[in-house]
Amino acid sequence: MSIPVSKNDIVTTDIIGLTHDGEGVGRVDGFTLFIQGALPGERVLAKVLKVKKQYGYAKLLEMITTSPDRVAAPCEIYKQCGGCQLQHMDYAAQLRWKRQHVIDNLERIGKLKVTGGKSDGAGEVLAEGRSADGLSGSEAGPGVIVHDTLGMDEPWRYRNKAQVPIGMAMAALDGGADGGYVDGTPAEGSRLVGGFYARGSHRIIDMDACLIQHERNDEAVRIVKRIGSELGVTAYDEESGGGLLRHVVVRIGFVSDETMVVLVTNGKKIPQVERWVEGIRAALPNVKSIVQNINMKKTNVIFGDETKVLWGNEVIYDELDGIRFAISARSFYQVNPAQTVALYRKAVEYAGLTGKETVIDAYCGIGTISLFLARQAGQVYGVEIVPEAIEDAKRNAVLNGIDNASFEAGLAEVVIPRWREEGIVPDVIVVDPPRKGCDQALLDTILKMRPERVVYVSCNPSTLARDLRVLEDGGYRTVEVQPVDMFPHTVHVESVALLVWNGTEG
Ligand code: SAH
């Protein structure tokens, strides 16, 4: 097929869906164009930016018709920042789109039949331009129930953690980081800036406030930047590998009010470190922990392996649903505490516990889900790869007087097969893997251990769907899926799925 558009063409197109990145999908003579900022149902004027074999990208110039789901994005830097992707969409429409996104993945990748999952036109459209093939609905037998996305009443200022990349700028100039460098070294009179990478780039743009971040985290980042600048601290420069401060990470306990500040540095020594610590403590009375993490590698990964306490505790404490958690700098802890409680309660409900069950919590982090489960189970076994997180998990069990949960550091796909050999027989296995989903070896082990129920908590609908297919082929049936909106205004979708043993294989 010849490509019907060229770069710089001005085209008119109807938007027929949203990609998983939140871009509008248009078609010109059958050719797919991705248009940032356009919404399904809109007719738009766009300028072609880039043309590839199968699809292209275009810039939204003007809306000819406007979707009823369109709202004015409240954040001033929304267009430049890559952090949020859906602020121009009404929140209720975001929730509908997230549910549909889950359904599309379950149908296309998981080959699952979804009950009542009819596309409302806001569904995701694939790059090749295929749309949902409508496996949904009442065709035959009961399918998977996908519930309405559980949203927030107040979907702003929900994050408990800020991770801010740091650069330099001339004191006189605002914005771009590069301005503060001369030949790779910070120029005189330059200051620290930090905020976000401009959409699709590694250029750091300074930011004072983020509408999805807790106000006190914004404040803490501002203070750390200001004091660092006053002390002449240099920022890490990706190009040259020089400079000191790479990231500032701040975490606040929503219940406890405790704050942790992490300075991620490209080097062990921080000049005038006492003055910096004193300044932070004076300006942030709730700070309970100031730590340094050393990362001297050329990498996008934020944290390095070495963490040392500069002042205060090694951890901060927070509470979820009456359970207290110690959280250290490198440990995973869900960023939206209000929705986390909803998610974990749903996971516990799906586990169907009566007080006697043996439960495995794979990818357990600091033992959050494990301890929720332990309140209603016989015995819980948690496994997690980050050793500090397992230390936290053990400490958290003791902290809450929970003695029926034990934890082990290691790969889930290695430790759980060994537990099987040791004779541990779970009634329920809960998994909560990172974006890439479960390791095949773990899925194989689940199929061998054959627990009555599997509860799958997922931050990525496509790997969820892939893994559900493996479990379905091994004899499990996916009963229901609950999408939970952990990340309002972004394209991220969390879900929890319940699978039961079907009694038959394949
Ligand atoms: N259930 C926890 C953590 C979920 S995030 C919570 O809700 O807080 C996923 C966790 O899996 C992270 O803590 C990560 O360190 C861990 N992880 C990643 N790959 C792993 C693997 N192969 N085996 C065990 N843990 C792993």
Features:
alpha/beta, 9-stranded mixed sheet, single chain, OB fold (Dihydrolipoamide Acetyltransferase, E2P), 25 strands, globular, binds S-adenosyl-L-homocysteine, 7-stranded mixed sheet, 506 residues
**What value does the average pLDDT take?**
91
In DSSP terms (H or I, runs of 4 or more residues), the helix count works out at 9
Bound molecules: S-adenosyl-L-homocysteine
CATH class of the domain at 161-320: Mainly Beta
Pfam family, one: TRAM
Keywords: 4Fe-4S, Iron, Iron-sulfur, Metal-binding, Methyltransferase, S-adenosyl-L-methionine, Transferase
InterPro entries: MeTrfase_TrmA_AS, MeTrfase_TrmA_CS, NA-bd_OB-fold, SAM-dependent_MTases_sf, TRAM_dom, U5_MeTrfase_fam
GO biological process, one term: rRNA base methylation
